[in-house]
Structure formats: C-alpha cells, structure tokens
Specification:
Length: 743
Amino acid sequence: MKRRSTVVLVPLTALLAAALTALPAGAEETEQVRNGTFDNGTEPWWTTANTAATAADGRLCADVPGGTTNRWDVIIGQNDIPLAAGETYRFSFSASGTPGGHTVRALVGLAVEPYDAYYEVSPQPSVSGDSYSYTFTAPAGTAQGQVAFQVGGSAEPWRFCVDDVSLLGGAQPEPYEPDTGPRVRVNQVGYLPSGPKNATLVTDATTALPWQLKAADGTVLARGTSVPRGTDVSSGQNVHSIDFGRYTKRGTGLTLVADGETSRPFDLGTDAYQRLRTDAAKYYYTQRSGLAVRDDLRPGYARPAGHVGVAPNQGDTDVPCQPGVCDYTLDVSGGWYDAGDHGKYVVNGGISVWELLSTYERALHTRGAEPFGDGGLAIPESGNQVPDLLDEVRWELDFLLRMQVPAGQPLAGMAHHKIHDANWTGLPLLPGDDPQRRELHPPTTAATLNLAAAAAQAARLYRPYDRAFAARALKAARSAWAAALAHPDVYADENDGIGGGAYPDRDVRDEFYWAAAELYLTTGEKDFQDHVLASPVHTADLFGPLGFDWARTGAAARLDLATVPSRLPGRDAVRRSVVQGADGYLATLNAHPYGMPYAPANNVYDWGSSHQVLNNAVVLATAHDLTGAAKYRDGAVQSMDYVLGRNALNISYVTGYGEVAAHNQHSRWYAHQLDPALPEPPAGTLSGGPNSSIQDPVAQAKLQGCVGQFCYLDDIQSWSTNETTINWNAALARMAAFVADQH
C-alpha cells in the first residue's frame, strides 16, 4: 500500500545481530545497568565535558550549567548496555532537582549514530514526583545500548541528582487498557439544531433500552429507546444506536443518559463549527517554514524561523541535491512543514493546496456558503485586501514553484519530489535548532503533476488579487505539464525514507487526469479537454472505501470538474458520478453502527484514517451542493461525529475540541509531552487516528491484535497512529467550513 513514514529505525548490522543471539526475549529478569545505586562511586557512568558527576550520599549528582540550548547539551549516561529486540524492560530511577521546574529527558536507546531513542520520558524532578517506573518493549536489538539523562536546555544553572537507576530485562509487559469513559458515545463538540443527532451506546443488552437527553441542570429534554445493532466489526463491541434528532432547541452542556451511563457533555448550536472552521485553517501558520511565528498572532506558539541558514540550521535557501542527482542548488525556502518532522514534500503539498483552494472556491460557486475574507486567520498578511486563506496557501505555493527544475537543466520543468534532512532528527526539536544537512531529492512525474495541478488551480483563483502571480503560476503549470508528458514514468524510490517520508507512487494516471482537469478549468483549452476526456480515469469509479488522498488524486479532478463552471462535454455525467459515489458512502454510513462513511476492506484502518472519513464526507457534501438533497447534507454533517468523539475510544481526534481530545500528536515542536516548555498542538489540529498496521514501536508494544478503531494511541511517539499532517488538516478545514455553513 502507498504510505508515508516519519521515523525509520536503522536495521541491525550483521555485527550487532551476532551479539544478540545470547539475548533471548522473555528471559528471566536481568539487571542491565551497572552500579545504578552509586554505592561504588560513579563508574561506569560518564558525563559531557561541561559538567561533572560525583557520588554523594549514595546518589549521583551533577551541577548543570545554565545557558545551554538543547537537552542533549548536558548528558549523564552509561553505554554498552545490551538490548534485545522484542524484549520487555522495566526502566526505573529516582531523581531530584533544584526547584524551578527543570525537565529531564530520560531515555534508553542507541549510544551510537543515529542515536535512536527506543524509549523516553520527560519528568520534572521534585515536581512530578521523585520515583519513576516504566515498561517498554525494545523495537530493535543492539550491543551498543545506552541509558542517559539529558538535562541541558535551561537558562539557569541547577543541580540534578539521580539514584536507583535500573533496567530490568525480562519484565512482564503491562497490559494496555484504554480508558474509554462512559459507554454512551457522542459528538463531544456539538450537533446542529437542524441537523442529525446520533449517538452510539456500548452495551451487552440485546433489546432496546430507554434513553434521556438532559440539560446541564438535569432537566429531561427528550426521551426515546435505542436500536440494537449487534456486533460492530470496526470495534468488536455490541452496540445500540440512539437518534435524538427531533430535539432542535439550542443548548450547552447537554448529556445523553442510557443504560446507567451518562455521556460526555456536548452543545446544540453552530458556534463551535464557526470556531473550528477558523482553527483548522489557522493551523498552517504555525507549520510555516522560513518564518518566525509571532506570539501576538499565536500566543504560546512563538518560535524563531526554521531553516533560514541561521546556525545551527544549514538552511533552505541554497539546497544541493542528494549526491549524484544534480549539480545545482535551489532556494526552496518557505512552505509548510509537512507533518511532525521538518520535511517538505511536493506530492503532499499539492493535494493540501488543492483541498484548501477548493474550500475557498466552493464559496465562490455555492449559494449560502460563507466566503473567506481578509483578517479572519490572524496571519502576518491579514489586512492586505486579500482573503487570508489565499494568503496562507500562497506561502506553500511559492515553495512548490521553487521546487521546479530550472530551464537549461536536465529534466527542466519537472519538480523535485521533496526536500528534507539527510538523517532523521529526534524529538523534541524546534525547526530553528535542526542541525542536519538539507537535500533535494530527485524529480518525479507525480511531483511534477502535483505542481501542475496546484499551480493551474491557483492561476484562476489568485487572478483577481495578483495577476502577475497568477500568470507566473500558469506558466509553471504549463511547463510542468509538458515536462510530465516528456517524462511520464519517473517514479519515487520507495526505499528513499531516511530523514523523511518516501511518498512513493507508481501509478500516475490519476495525477495526469487531475493536472489536465485543472489546466482545462483555468484555460478552457481543447488540448487539456481532450486529455480529460481520453483519460481512463475519467470514467473510472473513484469513490472506493479509502476515497482520495495524496496517492489517489483522481477524485480531486472529478470533484472540481463537477463543481467549477465549464463547458466540458458530458459534464452532467461527471456530476452524476459524484452523486453515485455519495450514494455509496451514504449507504456505508447508514449501515455503520458508529455512523461514518468509512468501512475499509477487512476492517484494516489506513494510515490517517480520520482524514479518510472526512474526505469521504467531502463527496457527500459535494453531492448536496450539486443536488440540494438533504440526505447528503445530513450524511456529511453526521460524518463529523466520528472525529469529534462518537467512536469506540470516546475521544475527539481534534485538539482542543471535546472534553477528551487528542493532544499529544507526533511533532518535534508541538512536543509538550516530552518538554513542558513546548506547547501542545494548536486547537483544530487533526490526529491521523487508528491505523491497523501500527508501524511505530510504541503502538506495536501496546496494540498488538487491536481491532479497527482501537488501533490508536494518543502518544507523541506513536507516529503511525497519532501524527499531524497538512493534508489531513485540509480535510478537516474543508468539512468544518461545510458544516459551519449549515445554519
């Protein structure tokens, strides 16, 4: 399957593999740390040169200098600790520190490059307690392991003491039981007064049960009985459905009571969706590369500009290719960081730009849609007489245009696939502190067509505000299109995943269709029309269970061809195909006990499943815009329930929305879980959600055998289930805008 990856564990070398044959998993508990009680001085513990450790009163203590930048600037550690892949360890220690809330990064990992952390925690000694104990399963094996305490990064000097450091192999893994709260699962944010109102009750009962809708003061507002649905295959739970849609009065702090359980509170109103419409789009400002984030615009999120060539950055203004790829450098500054890492990718940038621009474009052609104006997103460009959403997307578009191979070079007009660090960096790490060398990766046909499509769409939407930029975008789109026709089968290396995601895609028929469609809608030219009509994608069923994504872009073309005015022959058939796709998603939603238009084959949830739910809902929303039929509107609105709390885990996958919401998404700078001095992701950030393949070590340690919706952890280290990305948030922004329009 086509996937991205954010973290790659380096494979074992033959030398290390030989050393591990004597370390079987599941062995009797064995202490791996030597002299962890410091009864015999400090050997074999070591420190960085800027501090010294002494044994005092049976503890190891060190005076930590002030004025350092990173945690790893001051380290106390022990090397040559053997670790076995698949072995469970209990990591424990006691620690204390000078008052002031200093944070320690305690980790077990590799003592040699690339210094992967197999497990880490970040307590505040004397604040979060003095004794700590954790269990984890080693994701890989090595004879060169390390236990370390990274204590740098403080402006003021302080004293750190540690004792009873232990790493016991052969420990029993602690069973993971997610706290799912009350068995009545609701949209924790809110329901529209005039919209559908559904909930799911988890219960062993096989017959209908009474329910009550209650006001915040306990007054009963409505009553009814549940509908048994049997076993939900996506969760393995026995469930009932509750429909309280007849109640239409506004209110706050309402709850639903059934089977002795009271749901988490929710509102009946529209205000929350107006806020979410804005917050989901405001997310992009704090993802910007090459720009200092201002505290007055995003209180608590201020940070220096990343990758502008200020040490320790090597910068994005003069980036070379990977060795052997090209002999030039490019200024590829700006753009959005793609996800929780510091990479920037044309293929994911293209689909993100399209979805946000299509959110803007919908308001131009849909009666009742609220237009996007200037000033609503609180970004540096606010007040320039250009809608803020266009200003924000322009930051990414300028980067995409910079990724085009210059004239006169081999493959001129094509687009480099991506730019990121030569090696993976650890967490946490602010963009401005990234010391890695940056590299351009080879051009690909997929990236080139993403550029062509995004730039062509931009050309028609920016024309009223900046004719010169619109002309430049269209020229770049035409150049990219011609280059892709000349080089139709240049693919990304699926193994090119060191330092950044690979984003491989070896079927680019959908990208050709999408680029031709956007060029046709912007220019009306017959050549592009002919490419659209001749494409096998034009009549294919594009609305399968997984919907559309960065590697499945045909639906982007189909949706725009159906909604953007044009004289395309057979346009009525295009519109009917969208409605037929919506019928399929509506049938899936109505059959699903949790009421969502997503039921992947064999219940295998895909990477970023939460945004797949939303993108399928986009098709329902588009069908409503095309037909006016209430069933599509209601289906699209109801789809939001899943990501906002009506799910098996009873969690909102949107930070800041709902009583219990994801807030530890995988990110190097929204890293409060690892460093209390850093923020959590901003309100309106979508988590990727359940992923049946659980590729990261944290998920693999806790979620083996998980069923569908339960394949998720709200943990910063669970990059396969809990990352944040620009294309996922684009789906949230688009659907939040649609729901906000349904007054």
